[in-house]
């Protein structure tokens, strides 16, 4: 799927880092200064109306783009191949001509937990999966429960996931369904590292009866799913320098790939801002965690799936 203009929301933009040696600090400072020039030039264009989003000195601002890409692609979605068929059933479309709301933001309806931080662990897939199921649990019960990403990291290896070295949301949903549920985050907190499985059936916060895949390369189908069902797990290409330094606005990157997907996030809404259609996306980084991604007819950057709860 090709995620288009996107709006991302996050916790904070403040960053502090320490380095192993003065030479390493000097090296990082030079990269930071180079990236700062890029940020300033981009934001001048944004101020003049030529760019729909702004860049900033994010957590990754002291990295060259190749370093950042290695970090992002080191795990997270593992060896995902967008050309392979998925195992979920297909989302059933609405009747042609059905009206959808112009704007959707499931945060306003109570479907979305606060921004979380995956830290140094390649567990974006787990955060995307719990976010979708948290929304479905709220839809069914009216109670928003934060679910355990750490359980998915520790326990879903037999379903093809590799903990902090990558995984996939579909595999997480299959594990939760077969396991009979997933614990709450409170009972099984996040540690950002691989541990032994400590699932406790007495602490289950939600169950899942399966998931469906939204047709790839079909933005209207994704819009229907988000509007009528709730937050949807999506995979995006997060490798671009513009995403590395993104802070706010409607993110629109022509270089984004529809096949080389390396990051799992959560689509929590859509809308239009200053003539730009966008998707509202929840990230799992300590900055830029809410992002507006621009919509385009080519549909780049994303592949969606969503869980459904047991009745």
TrEMBL record:
Show the SMART domains listed in the entry. Inhibitor_I29, Pept_C1
Q: Pfam families this protein is in?
A: Inhibitor_I29 (PF08246), Peptidase_C1 (PF00112)
Source organism superkingdom: Eukaryota
Q: Which GO terms describe its biological process?
A: proteolysis
| CDD domains membership | Peptidase_C1A
Q: Which residues form the Peptidase C1A papain C-terminal domain?
A: 100-301
Q: Name one GO molecular function term.
A: cysteine-type peptidase activity
* Domain Cathepsin propeptide inhibitor: start-end pairs: 12-68
InterPro entries cross-referenced by the UniProt entry? Papain-like_cys_pep_sf, Pept_cys_AS, Pept_his_AS, Peptidase_C1A, Peptidase_C1A_C, Peptidase_C1A_papain-like, Prot_inhib_I29
Could you tell me the keywords of this UniProt record?
Disulfide bond, Hydrolase, Protease, Thiol protease, Zymogen
Instruction: Provide the family line.
Output: Belongs to the peptidase C1 family.
**Protein name, please?**
Cathepsin L.1
């Amino acid at each position: 799927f090709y995620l288009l203009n996107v709006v991302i929301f996050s916790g904070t933009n403040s960053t502090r880092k320490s380095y192993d040696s003065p030479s390493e600090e000097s090296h990082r400072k030079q990269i930071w200064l180079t990236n700062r020039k890029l940020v300033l030039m981009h934001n001048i264009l944004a101020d003049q109306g030529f760019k729909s989003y702004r860049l900033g000195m994010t957590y990754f601002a002291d990295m060259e783009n190749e370093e950042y890409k290695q970090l992002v692609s080191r795990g997270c979605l593992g060896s995902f191949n967008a050309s392979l068929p998925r195992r979920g059933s297909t989302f059933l479309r609405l009747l042609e001509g059905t009206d959808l709301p112009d704007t959707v933001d499931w945060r306003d309806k109570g479907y979305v937990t606060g921004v979380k931080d995956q830290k140094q662990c390649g567990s974006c897939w787990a955060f995307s999966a719990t976010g979708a199921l948290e929304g479905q649990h709220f839809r069914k019960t009216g109670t928003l429960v934060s679910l355990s990403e750490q359980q998915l990291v520790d326990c879903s290896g037999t379903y093809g996931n590799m903990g902090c070295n990558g995984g996939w949301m579909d595999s997480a949903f299959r594990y939760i369904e077969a396991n009979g549920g997933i614990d709450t985050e409170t009972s099984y907190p996040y540690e950002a590292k691989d541990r032994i499985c400590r699932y406790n059936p007495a602490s289950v916060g939600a169950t899942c009866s399966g998931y469906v895949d939204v047709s790839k390369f079909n933005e209207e189908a994704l819009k229907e799913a988000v509007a009528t069902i709730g937050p949807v797990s999506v995979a995006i290409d997060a490798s671009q320098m513009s995403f590395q330094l993104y802070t706010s606005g409607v993110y629109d990157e022509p270089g984004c790939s529809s096949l080389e997907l390396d990051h799992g996030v959560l689509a929590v809404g859509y809308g239009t801002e200053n003539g730009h259609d966008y998707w509202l996306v929840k990230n799992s980084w300590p900055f830029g965690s809410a992002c507006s991604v621009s919509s385009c007819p080519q549909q780049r950057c994303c592949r969606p799936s969503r869980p459904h709860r047991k009745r």
